Amino acid sequence: MLERNIIVVGASAGGVETLSQLAKALPADLPVAVFVTLHFPSYATSMLPQILNRCCTLPAMHANDGDLIELGRIYIAPPDYHLLLGNSHIRLDRGPRENGHRPAVDTMFRSAARSYGPRTIGVILSGMLDDGTAGLKLIKAHGGIAIVQDPSEALFDGMVSSAIKNVKVDAILRLSDLAAQLVVLSQNPVEEDNSMSNNLEQEAELVAQSKAELEQGEHPETSPSMVTCPDCGGVLWELRSNGLIRYRCHAGHAYSSDSLLSEQADLVETSLWSAVRALEEKAALAERMAKQAREQKRMLSEAQFLRRAEESRQQADVVRGVISTQGEKMQQVKSEESIMKE
């Protein structure tokens, strides 16, 4: 019999407050190790251990590469590192981003499922988009438990709603009940089942194999999509598994459909702002040349340069308008999605 003593928690927007409430309710003698991935910008400084240590009974700390896993502790993924669980130790990895994040929830969940199988309890809390869904599905496939925060209570319900839609979760709980349920689950031993498996854990291998087969003129089960990777510009391969569609490039960057759409939208906006900058620089240069022509009494050239400057300014205003319109449309879509969920 095995003890359910590995709890992995994923969160994003709204996660600090939510994690604080959850950790505060966990008893000091809980015989589990809790691992937390919260989305942080790579350049950020994480104060989450200090925040949790002010309100919680279990000691919280940033994970270090090679740390032995001890029960009764909360390990937090530091910014710009994936947190991976080995059989007895922690590994930090600066591998490719997943769903646009490092640390990523899916990465941690997958490692927990592989190393601890039915001993794992996966928890998804407040956050946007859908990081964690594929990893939670793999935890279930390996006999673990899947729990999500009640969407009506989550500050941002994207991650929990995605998990509920795509994974056969074991419980949907409010924070006031979630901690108590974790205590109960940790007290119920389970039998190990090595028969569980899922193609999601073999994504990188599938992409590498499919690429090799395609180069040899064969027909792979996975197929290259028409979309390039937002991170490195490589071909994204489409992978389908148990109703989930995911994308992964040969370098290892991975995306869900929602995350890929979000990253592509950011790329489009970045490109549009680059166009605005180029047009305004063009206008400034034309005005400078118009001034030089005026000083040299070349009136016809001055008029031509001023016309070019005005055209560039107008074009820049048009692109700015497109950016503004796209932003308004995105807000409208988010608003409509929220209404539909209600």
Task: Summarize this structure as a short list of keywords or feature phrases.
342 residues
Describe the structure.
By secondary structure, the protein is of the alpha/beta class. It has 3 domains: 6-186, 3-Layer(aba) Sandwich (Rossmann fold), CATH 3.40.50.180; 201-252, no CATH class; 258-341. The chain has 9 helices and 13 strands. Strand 12 and strand 13 form a beta hairpin. Helix 3 runs parallel beside helix 4, helix 4 runs parallel beside helix 5 and helix 8 (257-295) packs antiparallel against helix 9. The longest helix has 43 residues, at 299-341. The radius of gyration is 25 Å and the shape is elongated. 38% of the residues are buried.
CATH class label of the largest domain? Alpha Beta
Most strands sheet: 7 strands, parallel
User: Helix and strand succession?
Assistant: EHEHEEEEHEHEHEHHEEEEHH
Structural class, by secondary structure, is alpha/beta
CATH topology of the largest domain: Rossmann fold
CATH architecture of the largest domain: 3-Layer(aba) Sandwich
- Average pLDDT taken over every residue: 86
* Unreliable parts: 195-200, 212-220, 336-342
First-last Cα distance: 42 Å
Q: Count up the domains.
A: 3
Q: Which word captures the global form?
A: elongated
CA radius of gyration is 25 Å
Helix content: 40-55%
Q: What percent of residues are in strands?
A: 15-25%
Number of strands: 13
**Order of strands in the sheet with most strands:** 3-4-2-1-7-8-9
